[in-house]
Write a structure and sequence with these properties.
- It is a single chain.
- By secondary structure, the protein is an alpha+beta fold.
- It has one domain: Roll (Pnp Oxidase, Chain A).
- The chain is about 20% helix and about 35% strand.
- It has 5 helices and 9 strands.
- Strands 1, 2, 3, 4, 5, 6, 7, 8 and 9 form a 9-stranded antiparallel beta sheet that branches.
- The protein is globular and about 55 Å long.
- The model has no long low-confidence stretch (mean pLDDT about 90).
Length: about 170
């Protein structure tokens, strides 16, 4: 399969359609720590990044403080054809902890209903329990099956893997 069939614009649209992914950080002994978490996406005119809201008390925050390298996988399940493997978008990159009162990120979370619900009860000026995680992905995004006809994948599931590159100005 040609890796040029899908481009970053297509993958970015797919990423923006969802709000759930799986974050992997590294424990102090180097083993992975994985957890599901909701995300928001930076505005189009900004550097492409993902933002996650979490509590400072969680292991993922301590892991990021120690080692900022992370992996974030966004699944694209086939809701009607459960026997078909989910498509995925994998972003590897560097995470940074950002104060919860960062207005640009609050605005991003206010644009999607589910994200708006999780920030509804936070006092952004006084609350010190919460923090945003900003993920700046590496330029190469790994994809599997996203945008593919499932019948084509059925014939050769190995053809579903491809990668796209984030343009330098994004």
């Amino acid at each position: 399969m040609s890796s040029t069939k899908f481009n970053f614009s297509f993958i970015e649209r797919e990423i923006r359609k969802n709000t759930f992914g799986i974050l992997t950080t590294l424990n102090s002994d180097g083993t992975p720590h994985t957890t599901g978490i909701l995300y928001g996406v930076s505005k189009h005119e900004s550097e492409f990044s993902l933002f996650l809201l979490t509590s400072r008390k969680y292991k993922k925050v301590r892991n990021i403080q120690r080692n900022p390298k992370v992996s974030y996988i966004i699944p694209f399940p086939h809701h009607h054809l459960r026997f078909v493997p989910s498509g995925t978008i994998t972003l590897n990159g560097v995470a940074k902890l950002v104060p919860v009162n960062t207005e640009d990120i609050i605005e991003i979370f206010s644009e999607k209903r589910i994200l708006k619900l999780i920030i509804a009860d936070i006092d952004f000026e006084k609350d010190e329990e919460y923090i945003f995680i900003k993920i700046k992905p590496d330029p190469k995004i790994l994809c599997y099956g996203v945008g593919f006809n499932i019948w084509k994948l059925r014939g050769s599931h190995t053809e579903g893997g491809y990668s796209v590159t984030i343009p330098p100005k994004r």
